[in-house]
């Protein structure tokens, strides 16, 4: 009897044994979300946390968002210190995490399931018919991208409209074709690889207000001031702008662009 009790007690000890800090740090992906977050909080020192905030999370406003950013990067395999992902707290107090297109491509190719990728800008002529970019009166209206997986018969395609993303800010003003093609490709990659890239977004999908690798806290991204909105409404009423109505979620920078006609 005593021998049996000793064996049972030994088994209980084995079951109850907690993983070491080293084991916790290397097996976060196997733990539940809250356990993983707690492990990150215990593992990181204050100076390490401060370094991460300074280099890739300057726009993160809460400690909770800092830990969540680190956890999300760990789960998807993004290297924060290489600039593959950044985060910031938006105007509504939500954490936004942004990755680079190169990171998303790397994750897709790591699956060894990418057969081929295509992306193409969409131009239309004055009659609204699709045309080549060199045609007379050609106007950029969007882009399309396809991702063909080795384990599927048909490619997965995403088509996006330029008007939904281009607010004439930052790189969108200078290289709109490149930017809208990036948006189409990242959409297609997420659709083709939801397990690896679900919830991961590229900086090109944020209207130019965020650029990976640069400071993301931007006063110009704050909601437009009331006087700006009224001035734009007055411009619309007098026919001084092509806008039909004031855009929803208009930011300070976007309002300035409209009011100055892009000349500032």
Structure description:
It is a single chain. By secondary structure, the protein is α+β, with helices and mostly antiparallel strands. The protein folds into three domains: about 20-95, no CATH class; about 100-215, no CATH class; about 220-260, no CATH class. The protein is built from twelve helices and seven strands. Strands 4-3-5-6 form a four-stranded antiparallel sheet. It has a three-stranded mixed sheet with strand order 1-2-7. Strand 1 and strand 2 form a beta hairpin. Helix 3 crosses helix 5 (about 65-75), helix 6 runs parallel beside helix 9 and helix 11 runs parallel beside helix 12. It is flat and about 60 Å long. The termini are far apart.
Write the layout of secondary structure elements.
Blueprint: H1 2-16, H2 21-26, H3 33-43, H4 46-56, H5 63-76, E1 85-89, E2 95-99, H6 101-110, E3 114-124, E4 130-131, E5 139-149, E6 156-161, H7 162-165, H8 171-174, H9 176-192, H10 194-197, E7 201-202, H11 226-237, H12 252-260
Number of strands: 7
Oligomeric state of the chains?
Answer: single chain
The helix fraction, in percent, is 40-55%
The overall pLDDT average reads 77
Provide the structure class.
alpha+beta
Total helices: the number is 12
Strand share of the residues?
A: 15-25%
Write down the domain tally.
3
């Amino acid at each position: 009897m005593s021998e049996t009790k000793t064996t049972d007690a030994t088994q209980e000890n084995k079951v109850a044994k907690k993983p070491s800090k080293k084991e916790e740090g290397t097996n976060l992906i196997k733990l539940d979300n809250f356990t993983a977050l707690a492990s990150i909080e215990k593992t990181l020192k204050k100076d390490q946390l401060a370094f991460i905030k300074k280099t890739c999370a300057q726009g993160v406003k809460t400690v909770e968002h800092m830990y969540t950013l680190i956890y999300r990067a760990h789960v998807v395999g993004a290297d924060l210190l290489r600039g593959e992902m950044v985060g910031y707290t938006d105007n509504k107090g939500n954490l936004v995490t942004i990755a680079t297109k190169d990171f998303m491509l790397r994750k897709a190719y790591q699956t060894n399931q990418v057969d081929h990728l295509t992306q193409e800008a969409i131009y239309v002529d004055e009659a609204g018919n699709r045309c080549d970019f060199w045609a007379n009166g050609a106007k950029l209206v969007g882009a399309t991208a396809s991702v063909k997986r080795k384990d599927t018969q048909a490619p997965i395609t995403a088509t996006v409209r330029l008007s939904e993303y281009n607010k004439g800010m930052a790189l969108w003003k200078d290289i709109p074709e490149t930017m809208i093609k990036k948006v189409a490709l990242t959409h297609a990659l997420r659709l083709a690889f939801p397990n690896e890239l679900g919830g991961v977004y590229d900086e090109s999908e944020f209207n130019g207000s965020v650029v990976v690798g640069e400071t993301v806290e931007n006063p110009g991204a704050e909601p437009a001031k009331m006087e700006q909105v009224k001035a734009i409404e007055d411009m619309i009423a007098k026919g001084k702008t092509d806008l039909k109505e004031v855009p929803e979620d208009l930011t300070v920078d976007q309002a300035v662009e409209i009011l100055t006609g892009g000349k500032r």
